[in-house]
């Protein structure tokens, strides 16, 4: 059995280590060296082995190996005033009336090159102190309008187990907190971390939803399937967020394969997130219209269970974007377009 702690200790963080694992041209090596002066790299040994050594355009490689394009000036700059406004106490983010995030750590074992939290992740690997965790829990306890808490990061499932259990058990003591979610990429990048023991512990805090982060069908392996099975077998509902990434998963065929395979893993595709042009992610960003068009091409051709909602994350909340299926409305008569492009009328009853 693979020891996940050993995997963590053996993360690939230098060009020399990476060079021993995959084939890199001299040009790539020079470019990676330049990028590493600005942004750090971290890849788990498991994930590096998913890279297709013979394919310079391997989607897995694009997601974790630094590219010189990361140095392109981004359009979006983190707005520190907005960030501050959304952080009532350290470690808590709130943009919606009934939900809040708790971010106990910004540590991630595998840095995604497109990460929209790159400003923090892969920068300071700072964990909340015990006092800060208690302040965050107190804030949540005192605000009875909150009913759902999302534990995110960074990587919550890479936290010390005692700290994770402490947070979960304290949240469960709060009567107005009905739902807890954990946002995690661990089943994708470090599946050995998902043990039966961990799943047993997590299942004590039900209803606890696990939000995974698969972006490409190549990330679905026997190891990641096993990780999802362990969680699902313990009754933990699994949903997935995919980031739409140019050159990685921005085609109908790739998304179709991904969403259908996720369903077979008992993971419901939940969100397709538009990639934000933030630090170093410019080259992954698609047009907003592309996401809506990709889902339009899938709608009706694959099960509705497999279809996520396409959203643009903004400082003003997530904005759902969809193809406009209503062509016209006139005095109780809609003109609809269906998934095949057929146009027809639908009459609604008069009040
Ligand atoms: S797992 Fe999430 S938080 Fe961590 S680097 Fe990737 S996108 Fe960022």
Brief characterization of the structure:
The protein is of the alpha/beta class and 351 residues long. The chain is built from 13 helices and 12 strands.
Largest sheet: 9 strands, mixed
Q: What topology, given as strand order, has the largest sheet? A: 1-2-3-4-5-6-7-8-9
The count of helical stretches stands at 13
Reported by name, the CATH topology of the largest domain is TIM Barrel
Order of helices and strands: HHHHHHEEHEHEHHEHEHEHEEEEE
Q: Taking all residues together, what is the mean pLDDT?
A: 94
Which range does the strand content fall in? 15-25%
Q: Write down the Rg.
A: 21 Å
CATH class of the largest domain: Alpha Beta
What are the low-pLDDT stretches, counting only 5+ consecutive residues below 50? Answer: none
Shape annotation: globular
Distance between the termini: 65 Å
Examine the secondary-structure arrangement and name the CATH architecture of the largest domain. Alpha-Beta Barrel
